[in-house]
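Posting this for the archive.
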Amino acid sequence: MLFSQLLIPTLKETPSEAEVISHQLLLRAGFIRKLSSGIYSYLPLGLATIRKVERIVREEMNRAGAQELLLPMVQPADLWKESGRWEKYGPELLRFTDRHARASCLGPTHEEVITDLIRLNVHSYRELPLNLYQIQTKFRDEIRPRFGLMRGREFIMKDGYSFDATEDGADATYRKMHEAYHRIFSRCGLAFRAVEADTGTIGGSFSHEFMVLADTGEDTIVICKECEYAANMEKARCQTPPSPAAPPLLAIEKVETPGKKKVAAVTEFLGIAPKELVKTLVYMAEDKPVAVLLRGDHEVQTVKLANALGVHTDNLRLAEDKDIFDATATPSGYLGPIGLTIPVLADSELTRMHNFVIGAGEKNFHLLNANLNRDFTPQTITDLRQITSEDRCPTCGGSLELTRGIEVGHIFKLGTKYSEALKATFLDHQGTEQPFIMGCYGIGVSRTVAAAIEQNHDKDGMIFPLPIAPFQVILLNLSPKDEAITAAADELYDHLGKAGIEVLLDDRDERPGSKFKDADLLGIPYRVMVGKSFSEKGLVEIRDRSTGSTLSLPLADAGSKIVALVRNQ
């Protein structure tokens, strides 16, 4: 392909709207252009990269035994009402009515549609297992679309769904998808980890996120340095080691703490460490108050709390001062668990604490030497806190590292959530109706491209891994008006094309410096230069974009060397 014939509207300046590096570089390199908030057009190079990711996804999904289909993007409201998600999904679901006043939505995901398809067409265990997938444009009406392809409203996604007759079969399918995802992201040339994750609005019993490791990632993930354990912050389990031998339990004592509300102020006033205090927080769960007990130096993990309460995170918020006083008759800052009439949940860490400080339930007072079960008993004790790097691995007890990642894939074991709701059943080998056991498997295709850039770039531009680069080689004719140089560049271009190498020939009448800058910006893995060195010495220069290493070869040898570099990487 000739550069002069391609639509590549590169920009010298970074657009002010672009916050993250992938958004900046995709705009500057002419891969995408914004149509409206969170909605982008894919230009030729952007689409070429998208197609590379899609091809890898298709090959590995097919290899794992999945079948590709294509489902409608417009989905009837009736299906979503059957599953119970029409109202629960939230404002991200773009709802509308057609000319006949029939309610529908633009699909953000396709659990309902695929379940409906299967319940109408599959009736026997003999037809199972089934694993189906599609690659399609999705729409989620994000309240604050940002970061370009990282969090847009319209995006390209691979979503897959499996149907099994037994739990063992569903587990086997899940493992196949887990392995397929490892192959997909490995083939894309990305550094990534599969981490335990919360199932969120999709539902199901357990799930894994596939996270591309990048310092600019939105999500914090927890990785064990000594075993394979990894989880996102929402799911990371806080280990509660066996309690040390309990010291003598001291008599509870009321002390005055005038004006001391915050943990730091109270502990400084009393001369204790924050870990010797238990704070009492109040949350509103579906507008009903609940108290949460937590060690003074720990923070609540809201997803864990929401799961413990059985509510959606959208219906959970930290109570305001008025809410607290209305529910407890105590001003914020002095609340404690003793005498509370609202539900009380305690973090598991409290089981290891003795003789700690709590609020007295009275303005300007706290209590010393409080103890769990002697002085108060929560209704629920469970893991409610945010994990820290000081915690130990819940699997092997090893040390943990907190790092950043970008979610590009998510797999779920759904169980029978959707099949039961939509009455999707099959006849087992005994002729008994059973609900399908389902799995769900998503990959953000366009998001994977953005994540690859977040992980692979420098000050000059993108550095695409070879498998997903729009072209494998960019060939620079550095003097188009020189007949010898142009003939050499054309000869090399023809040689590489016949060898099956994807080459972009920069044939523009531009200064070499401009061509170098554009080549670095585009991030194509190999840059081949035919210019002054060829005129003077008969040499062609080959530069590796990722390492910056350069080698010079005679024209006769350059073609075979480039082919070898591309094929052997």
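The chain is about 30% helix and 30% strand. The longest strand covers residues 400-415.
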